[in-house]
Every structure is written in C-alpha cells, then in structure tokens.
Design goal:
With 440 residues, the chain is an alpha+beta fold. 47% of the residues lie in helices and 11% in strands. The chain has helices at residues 32-35, 44-55, 71-74, 84-120, 126-133, 136-153, 165-172, 175-186, 188-198, 202-212, 222-225, 228-245, 254-293, 392-404, 421-425; strands spanning 303-313, 316-325, 328-333, 352-355, 360-364, 373-378, 383-388, 417-418.
Length: 440
Amino acid sequence: MKSIKRRRTVKKFKLPHARSEDCLQNAKEWSPKWALRRTNSVDNAHRALISDMVLTDGDSDFDVEQNYDAWSIKHDRIKDSYDDIDIKRQDIISEFIHTERSYLRDLLLLQKAFKAPLQRNNIIDDHLLNRIFINLDEIIVLHKTFKKKLVSLQDNPNEYVDSIGDVICDFLKNPLFLSNIVLYCSNLSDSLMVLKERMRVPDFAAFLIDCETNVLCRRKRLKELLPRPMQRVTRYPLLLQELVKRSSSKNQDHDMLVESLEVIKAVCKKIDDDVAKKESSRIESAARARLQADNVNKEIGDLILNLPVIYSHDDKKDDVNIVLFERYIVLFPNDKSLYSSSSTSDQTLETVVMTVRDGIFISHDKQDSHSKSLYIISTSETLICHVCCRNTEEYKLLSEALSKLQISREGDKPPVKLLDLADIMESPTTLGAASHYFPE
C-alpha cells in the first residue's frame, strides 16, 4: 500500500489589536521572528511601530504590572513580626515605588510609541513635535535615575525598606527636577491645544490612531498620557503626607520626609503660579483676538481682571474665564476640557461678549447663601449672565472690579450700577428697561 502523506497544517498568527480583550500585556510575549512578519494589511507606519515595540523587549522599565499586591499581602508570612504602623508604612513605600515605575513606563511609552514614530516618519515638523512633547526626554532621564535608586532599596528578600526619605529628598531638591517639571507643566495647555488642532488633519489623526493600537499602550491615548507629569507631581504630596503620618522619630528618615513634603508643596505652588500666569496671558490674548475678529473698531481698553468662574446657562455649568476690559466683558472657555479624556468638540462653549456701552448692571444672587455668585446684566446685548466664583475672596475681587468698571455714555463715564435683579425683571419692557435704572 502506498503511504498517504498528510498535509501539515500551520497555525496562522495574527497581530493582536490593543482594543481587543485578548491583547498581549507585555512586550516580552512578542517573538521578533513572527512579530516582524509583514502582511499586506500592515502599512509602513504600523511596521515601524512593531519595530519600536520589539526594541523595548528586555527593557525592565516596561515590565510593570498593572495590578500589584501591597507589601503586607505579598509578605503575609512575616508581617506579624512588625507592628501595624510599620506595616502600613511599608505598604505606602511599596505603593510609592510601584507608582513611580508605572509613571516612568508611561513616559517611555510617550517616547517610544508616539514621539519616535512621529519623528521618524516625518508626520509633523520638529517645531510642532517639540510643542507637543515639550522636554519629555529630559524628564525621562531624571526619573530613570530616581526609579533605579528607589528599586535598589527593595533589594532584599523581604523587600523591606528601612529608609527612603533621603532618596526622595535628594531628587525633589534637584534643581533640574524643578526647572524641567515647571517647564513641562506650564506648557502642557499649549501642548494639548496643538494636539487638538493637529487631530483635524486626516493623515496625522490616522497615524496617531495607528500608534495607539500599539500593544504596549494598554488602551491609553496620547491625550491621556501627556498630562501624566502634572498628575504625578501632584500625587507626591499625598503619598508623602501618608509616609510622614506613618513615620515617627524612631525612623531615621522622618526629618527627611518632612523636608521632602515641604519641598514638593513649594514645587506645586510654583507650578500653579506659572501655569495660572501663562494661562491668564493666553486667555487675554485669545479674548482680544476674539473681539478683533468681530470687527471691533473701538478701542478695547486695558485689562482689568482675568478670573476663572463657573458660568450657569441652559441648566448647564461650564468653566470659563471672565475677562474684564475697559469697554468689554468676555466670558471665555478655559482649557479644563483639554485635560478630560471624555470631552468632545460638540461640547465646546461659545464665547460670550458683553459691550460696556449703554449699561452694565450687577445683581447679587440672594439664593446663594455662601455669597459667591452674581448676575451680570448687559443692556447692549440684552444678556443676563449668571456666574459663580470659586471662593468668597475671588467673589469680592470680581465685585470690586465690576464696581470700578468705567463705561462710556454721552461723554460721561459713570460706574457700573449695582441694583436688584427683581427691579429689572419687573420693569414693563423687561431687560430693555434696565437703561432707565442707569444713573444720570
């Protein structure tokens, strides 16, 4: 009898997709032999991404578990040898080190899965690339060294860390850390705005979506990864507060932890001030550009106040900045929507412009028990805007600025009128009758 040869079936491999539930979670699971095989459906850009992913194989900075066990759970057999405070302290230290490793992984993800492919394929020029990723490379260098020192502290069988304060304090007091993190955070708003604008370009949007399918991304998008440095630096005070709380004078790093907490609070204050200053300048420029786009021929006037408030309208509340010029009041949408991964272009709030010409009136909200909101009534545009300040101090600042606002009417410049909203609403011609309340 003739032997029958059976055809050997070969299992076909498919490139995993980052959006599927069965996608690989670690770059080491990729075999370079088949990961680099080309198929007709994989374009050059995707091939470059796969090459980048293979290059990360063996890099321990990418081998970070998404979920980790606390020190007390991982070393349950020996935890009875320590008191409850010490166990909690080790849990916090373990969390600090793990979250630092996860943070560094996200930074490297920005570099390997997004910046490098965009640069290599000339999707955008170097100027726009630097505006989006700012000083990412410098921050990575700093945190790689920091992470290495932190991990070395756990280099013992029980991963018990006796002292961590000196390592944290030295890192936070490094002038390079301060300068680089402040530079990144103060330019983050501009970075997200450039990204939002470039997403309107079909080629860029398609390439970026392809980048986000990289298995290393774990479903994270570029707009979600860019704010990570700001999120991390604001997380440090919370972790350090818990460490100080669980430490005592018997711990040799107690004083260093207290000093570290003070240092990072000062860093966060510096970041807040710089971000607020830059954002205020940007909003003022944008508000002036908006007025000029409306063919405003008259002089806009000097800036009097630029303050973030909550604008209530149509049963909705939006975060805006109220920008007071000598002759115009502008409610300008701020950039909080840029930091939200769920925001869409359909939710964009239109800019509100009120002319300080025939009369601007202020009515305090009597239903507001905390005295933080008021109504601004414009007789020129027949508008009533309900705004709420974040605190009573900003409310007083806004009230005083509106009270000092000068308006031009028949050559005179009387101040803004303060009156009860009910007086206007009860008038025969409603808002149009507000001009009768204007001081002679």
